[in-house]
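Changelog-adjacent note: as of this version, every example in the card shows the full chain rather than a window. The one below runs 143 residues end to end.
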Amino acid sequence: MAKNFRNAAHGPRAPQKVDMRLEQIVQRSPLLAQLAQQAGQAARLLELVRPLLPVALRSTVQAGPVEGEQWCLIVPNSAAAAKLRHLSPDLLAHLQAHWQAQRAASAPGQDPASALPTLPRITQLRLRIGSAQGQPPVAGEQK
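Full-length structure tokens:
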């Protein structure tokens, strides 16, 4: 009897048309749109600093979240974190120079809606040790 009830409640349904692309779904939800924007910003920041990273680390460093003027980089292990701690001043200087150039290039009085997406000002890097495969972190955060 319970099985019949389950079938009645969750029985076959008419196929739903799911023509919406992921972008359309994201744009319809303010929260998802904000998360997508933040993920895009973090990915663009990583592309800016990737050439400055040691070749061996370029494929393993992942972009983490941006919180205010702080950006988190996810690294695979403590050795990578130590190397990036030494490179942090160079990475920050590169990001700061890009931010300054971006500000100088923005035309005064330009309609903000027509402007290209700008990157946030980053004044601090945070390093987090985690897995390169997107699994949960294996150790605590490193500063």
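Structural remarks: The beta strands are 62-67, 70-75, 124-129, 141-142.
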